[in-house]
């Protein structure tokens, strides 16, 4: 399996997911500001999910950059990740339409958690395929972001049933943690280039 | 016709099919767990079809890898395959929404059967275009998976009217048969590289 | 403007058009064969439009193959073609849902006619950009298909108000005329390669 | 981050936005010309937005052509632009369905304004990354189009509450200003090539 094709397919699917998500922002019947108001939480959910998917796209790219050979397990781990990402438009729409009610807000976190787990599996398989001198392992270092995120998602899922504000705040927090550009892989790649 | 463009177009169509399928998972009106319950069979159908489309994408890629020249018949055989694959979101949605009722479950199998036939036609044309020393023919060997699948689909289509559990079990079985990574083409390609 | 990017963008748009068209095939509420019956004309319209879009994709590729430099007018003539193609899912859905009624059947032809005109404009601009020794002009020769199609569309549009069977037959006829692979451009390209 | 992948992802998203926008042109229930009439403003909005997105795609391509290295801020400025473009199908549909009523027409302009601002930020970041001898800064010159457009959008947004005709006229005017092919970047690129 060619790495470029895997990359192009993943990019295509993420581009489609990020774009069809906007279809959940249904055109209201009516022309007044009042008809827009119930759409506000849908829009906010959309913004949040847009950022999450952009982060995944960005990190996924960096991760694949270190990959040499696409094996069967890596291929399916990648599809597994795309599967969970493909459910984000649904959970985004449900959370937005119900104005961040308990269960929809929790389900939103569950899908994010599963995507994070899928990302972790894919990362582990790539590292394993690279052997001892794995570039990706060096690059991610302690991977504190990757380890902290699932814990925060879990807290948010439980918190959603108490206060959806806490859950929302955690979702925003995790996005912010990742938004800070992840220069680890770039740095290690540059180091290697420099040492040649 | 350039092979890369055929590949890119096919990938694009499959990426779109796999992603718009999730639009059948309609956001429910209501925030309780009860509103999610009727969506469970839709989700299960989605998972099954996601796996089928991923398998097609994967095998399609391996098959095209052996192709040298895109002829008119190969081009149209490929479009014919994409046509049947494009109907999968419809049959997935209908089967899911009707909780695996008889006719929807049978129709799901009919479209899978037609896609398998279309795949077989495409494969036969590529082998014919490669002449005696066809790499693809060597690679697929006895092609027992390709021959068994249509038979299993036929059994599932008939079985759907008796018990949708049997039909569903067969659909899952065929997916599992194909999920086992198909190393045949890779192996033959490697052999050829090695003998050079 | 890079030719590859124009090609990739056009391919992307055509791939999306051909795939979202299937969304007009709405999943029916009900599990009996009776609920499928009204979908039959929608399916037939879909098959017809799928073939038309596949033909456009194929011929568009051959035409761009002869192109050297993307000028502003060529860029916009290409977008103009994509615009008319993007209306095909709408006219397909309307014609199918109304079981080939007069006006929808005529409108289907009007959009096909406009797409053919847009294709002709694009072709003319490419030929003009290639100067006297235009490869594309040689390749299309008398271009009898390109000249006959608009006439047939016009007849079909008028005929739709008398008998939708005649209109449908003409649409199928035009598709068949084009389905015969257009080897003209390939032949001229091969000749040029051979004479080198 | 590889420039080609950024370009391909942006192209993919724009191609999807431009195409799913046509889904707002809902197939009417009924076969008479009367059922089409309320769709006319939706179609006109679609044409306008199609042209806007095509302009963005075209100029975006020229701008990225001058880019050497994708930095984190450029990546996110690009995603920010795609976010505002992704809202265009929604504002297009709302404006069209409400026959260019006050608020929808104003909102249409607000999203265009935000997209223009996002484009300006991206442009500024690319220029900054290129240092003193920025090719892009030379290419855009005084950038009068880029500076005039937001002013015109602002006027249109205010005018929408007085007369939607004025607002519409301004939207068409801005599109026309940009439709005139922007040869500035091409010219500067050619000059550089010539001086080598």
Task: Outline the structure in words.
The structure is a homotetramer of 196-residue chains. With 196 residues, chain A is mostly helical. Helices cover 78% and strands 0% of the residues of chain A. Chain A is built from ten helices and no strands. The model of chain A has no long low-confidence stretch (mean pLDDT 88). Chain A binds chain D through residues 7-8, 11-12, 14-16, 18-20, 22-23, 25, 27-33, 36, 47, 50, 54, 57-58, 61-62, 65, 179, 181, 183, and chain D through 1-2, 5, 8-9, 12-13, 16-17, 20, 23-24, 72, 75-76, 79, 82-83, 86-87, 89-90, 93-94, 97-98, 101-104, 107.
Largest interface: A-B, 31 and 32 residues
Radius of gyration of chain A: 18 Å
Cα(first) to Cα(last) distance of chain A is 29 Å
Query: What is the helix content of chain A?
Result: over 70%
Give the biggest sheet of chain A: none
Shape of chain A: elongated
Tell me the quaternary state: homotetramer
Protein structure class of chain A = mainly alpha
Kindly estimate the percentage of residues of chain A that lie in beta strands according to DSSP.
Answer: under 5%
Which regions of chain A contain 5 or more consecutive residues with pLDDT less than 50? none
The number of helical segments of chain A is 10
Q: Please provide the count of β strands of chain A.
A: 0
Nearest-integer average pLDDT of chain A: 88
User: Order of SSEs of chain A, N→C?
Assistant: HHHHHHHHHH
In brief:
Four copies of one chain form a homotetramer. Chain A has helices at about 5-20, 35, 40-65, 70-85, 90-95, 100-130, 135-140, 145-160, 165-180, 185-195. By secondary structure, the first copy, chain A, is an all-alpha fold.
């Amino acid at each position: 399996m060619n790495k470029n094709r895997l990359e192009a397919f993943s990019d295509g699917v993420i581009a489609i997911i990020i774009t069809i998500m906007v279809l959940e922002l249904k055109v209201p019947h009516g022309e007044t500001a009042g008809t827009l108001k119930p759409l506000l939480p849908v829009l906010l959910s959309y913004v949040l999910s847009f950022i999450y998917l952009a982060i995944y796209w960005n990190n996924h790219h960096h991760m694949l950059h270190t990959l040499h050979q696409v094996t069967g397990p890596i291929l399916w781990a990648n599809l597994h990740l795309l599967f969970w990402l493909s459910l984000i438009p649904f959970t985004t729409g449900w959370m937005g339409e119900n104005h961040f009610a308990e269960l929809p807000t929790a389900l939103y976190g569950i899908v994010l958690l599963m995507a994070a787990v899928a990302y972790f599996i894919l990362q582990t398989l790539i590292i394993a395929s690279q052997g001892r001198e794995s570039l990706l392992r060096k690059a991610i270092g302690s991977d504190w972001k990757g380890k902290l995120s699932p814990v925060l998602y879990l807290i948010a899922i439980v918190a959603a049933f108490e206060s959806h504000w806490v859950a929302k705040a955690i979702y925003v927090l995790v996005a912010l943690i990742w938004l800070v550009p992840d220069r680890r892989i770039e740095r290690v790649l540059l180091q290697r280039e420099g040492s040649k």
